[in-house]
Amino acid sequence: MDAENMESVDSGPMLSLRDLRVSYGDREILHGINFDVMPGETLVILGGSGSGKSTLLRTLVGLEKPSSGEIWIKGKDIAKISHDEMDEIRKRMGMSFQGSALFGSMTVGENVALPLREHTKLEDSTIEIMLRLKLEQVGLAGFEYYMPSQLSGGMMKRAAVARAMAMDPEILFFDEPSAGLDPIIAAGIDQLILEMKKAFRMTIIVVTHELASAFLIADRMVLIDKGNVVLIGTKEEMRASKQPRVRQFLDRIAEPEVARELDYLQMLTEDRRSLGVPGGKRGT
Amino acid sequence: MPLLLGSRMELGSQIGGGVLNGLAYLGSLTSLAGRAAYFAFVAPFRGKPLRVQRVVSQALEVGVRALPILSLITFFIGLILALQAAYELRKFGAMDLVATAVAVSMTRELGPLITAIVVIGRSGSAFAAEIGTMKVTEEIDALETMAISPIQFLVTPKFLAMIVMLPCLTIWANSMGILGGASFGVAQADFTWARYIRTSVESLFLRDLVTGLIKSVMFGITITAVGCLEGLNTGAGAEQVGKSTTRAVVMSIFMVVVVDLIFTVLFFVVGG
Fold first, then answer.
1. A162 is a domain residue
2. What is the rounded CA–CA span in Å between residue B174 and residue B194?
3. pTM of the shown model
4. Tens digits of per-residue pLDDT, A125-157?
5. H/E element, A265
6. Is A94 in a helix, a strand, or coil?
7. Which residues of A touch B134 (CB under 8 A)?
8. Are B139 and A62 in contact (CB < 8 Å)?
9. Are A20 and A9 in contact (CB under 8 A)?
């Protein structure tokens, strides 16, 4: 393949974040994220809705631009490089999206073959062989002529993984791999990720809020809450942590009802009986 | 009178804001067209070849599949033109001029314009809907993460297809319009088919055809730019795709008429 050969840093991290801040307009979503991902490890980024984990993932693959900070991937700070240089790095990465994001106008085979057709000068016959191989690796042998609309959710996910793997990436990103899948199919995707881990020794970064999946596939986990890193560590360190936000997330404790002064208009429109006191404020 | 002053300033800032937004929109359109042109004409010489297959399949959809509806519409338009022209010309006993009137109006103005409107309805909306849906399902993001430019992959083939197809469709539309006028001429104005068509062709100057075709190319560029821009700017959710598609059609029609005005004035001044 024609992918640019970058100097590999032997013992250093595959990916490093230094004080990463990302904003949408005036609103800062990520407030100074710091962590490293070592080559060959599987890091799971955990967090609730609105924690900023999706923004973090999108920034790592270059879909969002940081407002400040550094993201070092294989010796280059992707926050500061040109679009063409970023494209070269992207050829060494693969991403599986939450909704699969398969191209609806192409067959599964054409979807998987697309990166190969665009970025390599391989013969069609060779590409044919490679896409069959990728589909077999994800358990979709024989499905190359199906259209994405003909596949079930789990199968679409697998096809998306096959496409992400097409160029044999060094880093694989997953955005909510179990989203929308029933537990059995989701477990199948987890198994697929574990097999990929064992077979290819890639660096894998997964964003999810599914605890069961996370604990199954992770080497290390990082918990993000409201744009900050709460904790980063191994599964055991996570489980043993006494930090309240960590415990709340792992033990699935709901947000407590925060006592607050009610809006007068809200009181007027709500059912009086549920308030108890007609027209009065709900006390602490 | 502070209240009056306040409302005048409010109006001023609204107009100013509107103008700025309009200019920003034009800027985005030009930027998109420019980037598409880069991938069409410059990038192939820098190792990023053009996928001809994609251009051809777009051309098929934009051009060939529009022929039936375009034929019907422009035939009727030619007929309507002939009727309108005859309505006045018969007062002067100059029914012979109907052929000329229809031919010149179609070739210079109505052929390109009606073709553009049919293409807006079929393809302008389709571009916005296709790209908008891809935006919502993260397919555009997927292209980016695969180091494939969405402009090169999606927009450039459409531009090239439209630039080639719109003049072809316009020529077809002109012919159908003349035929439509001929059916009136033969039925009501003592023409034979042969004489009508000969008169139409003889009354046309080359510049009539050329100005019409130049307009059609400009319309093609406009329609593609607006349709693709609206698609790429789609917000999140299925409802937004509908909104983008509607906006694409409305803005395309408006922009096409503006471009038509600009070029008609230009050709009038230059004497073309």
1. yes
2. 17
3. 0.86
4. 999 999 999 999 999 999 999 999 999 989 999
5. helix A264-269
6. strand
7. 103
8. no
9. no
